[in-house]
Design brief:
2 domains, 5 helices, Immunoglobulin-like, four-stranded antiparallel sheet, five-stranded antiparallel sheet, alpha+beta, C8orf32 fold
């Protein structure tokens, strides 16, 4: 979701070079055609992508229609058992620090907010239980900012950053409500469901996450995700509830703040790719997705980074 720069305070910026490798493993013998999609980062008001380069066979660049995600797409005839496609880019990312005083009151929305940010996703749901919790959490709050902060505080009190057991990592609101633990997808599923139940548009982004310390090298993580909510007539306000769960001393920062050590790779849930995949809509997109003769294939990604 694009930020309105007028509502951001000065922050730092960071540039880093990324190499992303899309892997398809154990392609079934006899496969006639392999279709492969990978997310491709793009410019936003707080992110600039440059030096995008594909190694080997160039892909067809497409755009997913619901959220505008950019995709790289390959069709490979008679593929080998393992297929790799690599690309690299440089990302300059601006820290987002929202001027919360400037969004303390609601404005008048000039344009309709897309329905994708207001209704159910397959796993990020709004049902009677969510509506009841949202009403209790936001009771007595009048502005969007007040309601969103009450929801954020509830999520931090309810959820524990804990990747033990099963069911975590899918961004499942029911799992978050019933188990009260998980990773970034689960924290933000609960936040988005409660926000939407309160009439607050909220969205989802997923991407790559670097160490906070510039120049530090460590094994890259799998992914990170975060959320935004809309203050009517003003701007989208960033939220990173799971980082606040990991670092409680920074809870105030992560309500309205996003650090610069990240790159957005895609937006939204329940994604229908372009060209359309034969399988079901994707829960979210960071790893590549592939189909071997129309059936989902095993994929993985690796990536490297360096500060520049």
């Amino acid at each position: 979701m694009p930020a309105d720069m007028a509502y951001l305070k000065p922050g730092d910026s960071r540039s880093f070079a990324i190499e992303y490798t899309a892997q398809v493993k154990d392609v079934p013998a006899g496969t006639k055609r392999l279709r492969l999609w990978a997310p491709v980062p793009q410019d936003t008001p707080v992110q600039t992508i440059s030096d995008l380069r594909f190694e080997g066979e160039p892909p067809r660049i497409t755009t997913e229609s619901r959220f505008g995600n950019r995709l790289a797409y390959w069709e490979i005839d008679d593929p080998s058992p393992t297929v790799e496609r690599k690309f690299s880019f440089t990302c300059t990312r601006r820290e987002q620090i929202t001027d919360l005083a400037a969004v303390a009151t609601d404005g008048s929305e000039a344009e309709a907010v897309p329905a994708a940010f207001t209704g159910d996703d397959k796993l990020t749901i709004v049902d009677d239980r969510i509506r009841r919790i949202a009403a209790e959490v936001t009771a007595g709050k009048t502005t969007t900012l007040e309601k969103a902060r009450a929801i954020y505080d509830y999520v931090l009190a309810k959820m524990k950053y804990d990747k033990s057991g099963t069911g975590w990592g899918r961004g499942d609101t029911v799992h978050a409500c019933e188990v009260g633990k998980g990773n970034c997808t689960d924290f933000h599923a609960l936040f988005m469901s409660l926000a939407r139940a309160s009439g607050i548009p909220a969205g989802f982004e997923i991407g790559l996450y670097l160490p906070y310390e510039r120049g530090k090298q460590e094994a890259p993580g799998g992914y990170h995700c975060w959320s935004f909510f809309r203050v009517p007539g003003k701007t989208w306000v960033p939220v990173d509830a799971s980082e606040a769960g990991r670092f409680p001393e920074r809870a105030n920062y992560f309500f309205g703040g996003h650090t610069s050590n990240r790159v957005t790779m895609s937006v939204g849930r329940d994604l229908v790719l372009e060209p359309r995949q034969q399988g079901e809509p994707l829960n979210y997109l960071l790893n590549p997705y592939a189909e071997a003769d129309g059936k989902a294939a095993t994929t993985a990604k690796t990536w490297t980074y360096r500060d520049v």
